[in-house]
Amino acid sequence: MRLTTDNTFNPRYGIDYDDTLRSTYAVERFRDTSYLSVRGWFFQGLRAIDRAGTTPIALPLIDYRWNPEQRVLGGKLSIVANSLALSRSDGQGIRRALAYAQWDRSIITPLGQRVTFTALARGDVYDTVDAALATLRRYAGVDGFRGRFMPQGAIDAEWPFAGPLAGGEQAITPRVQLVTAPRRLNIGIPNEDSRAVELEDVSLFALNRFPGFDRFEGGSRVTYGVQYSYSRPRFSLQTEIGQSYRFYGSQLTFPVGTGLTRPWSDIVGRTTLKYAGWLEVTHRFRLDDGNLSVHRNEADITVGSPKTYATIGYVKIANAIAIEDLPNLEELRLSARVAFARHWSVFGSTTIDLTSPTEQPGATTNGFTPVRHRAGVQYEDECFRFGVSWRRNYLSYGDFRSGNTYLLTLAFKNLGR
User: Fold this and answer.
1) What is the DSSP letter of 133?
2) Alpha-carbon torsion 47, 42, 88, 80, what sign?
3) How far is C-alpha 298 from the geometric centre of its chain's CA atoms?
4) What is the overall mean pLDDT for the chain?
5) Where are the strands (E) in 320-402, listed by range?
6) Residue 268: inside a domain, yes or no?
7) Bridge partner residues of 37 (DSSP)
8) 128 in a domain, yes or no?
9) pLDDT, tens digit, 9 for 90 and up, residues 279-329
10) Does residue 96 fall inside a structural domain?
11) What does the pLDDT read at residue 389?
12) Is residue 111 helix, strand or coil?
């Protein structure tokens, strides 16, 4: 349970910087082949523009999954069901119930290709009330009951080529996926859980690249890419790059800035390098499919051991999703911790906003504006954690003012065990 009477309480005392507090209660049941969850969610918005009447309450949210051990036509079957009742005192409310069955079968051809066949059938029923009160018209449904049926089929082919290289092993794996489904599946359906959509390397080959249930990606598309890996003792390298092309389907399915608006998607990729357990580098990117301009660029570097380390994080978003009030952004994060005794360590971190008015019109930063700094010393053993730290905040909002904060923290561990 997370509630506050003061919207700036958490950042003021260094608890966290969330702009929404989430409280949940759940009852779960786990079996060897099935899972059942019944949850309730309550949200409290902490931004100045948040209104309590438009903040939803989700009760109940029911999820069920069954994966029978028996194979069906040589493949694996999954049955999934979901039900949600979401209400607002001054906004759109929905009730939904859905279920789908997914069948997957993989075969290895004589030439070494791995081909996976997928068939999916899903049915939804929605009941929407007060659609005219939706905060964003794009996400509103149509009042009353509405249903949809969504069949989908996919073929996914991978062909790895592996062999020795410089004392290690390398593999190059081209991959092609063809997905087809009916078009215009989302008309009149509200969107409550599929808004945070953006093309990434982890979602490139997903059957539905929306993150939730309320939106389903229809039409036909082909997705292609290549994966490369190289490993040897104490060293590993993995990289992948890919893109998709939608043959037909509404270009209004995805908002501008997601990388999926046009028939040719943006190009996404990721590279991860690890060495000797003390160096890890991860780089992700999203490039415009036309002129290869950078829409998203992320890098994370970690050097050191679990007790003594330094990290560098960089992110640049140059084609933000305007409808979600997500501006262009460029940010640098630095942090370090040094253990100087068995239980003692010193630490520090800083966040710097590199966004300039050229990148984000109307931005108040000059291209190198500190956001916050932090430094301190900490003692931690098996029983408790004690620390003293200094933090400097440079931003002000609401009744939270910039300035220095000194914190004394004490936490007891393993209580009740």
Assistant:
1) G
2) positive
3) 14
4) 90
5) 329-339, 344-353, 369-380, 384-393
6) no
7) 28, 63
8) no
9) 999 999 999 988 999 999 999 999 999 899 999 999 998 876 666 666 788
10) no
11) 93
12) coil
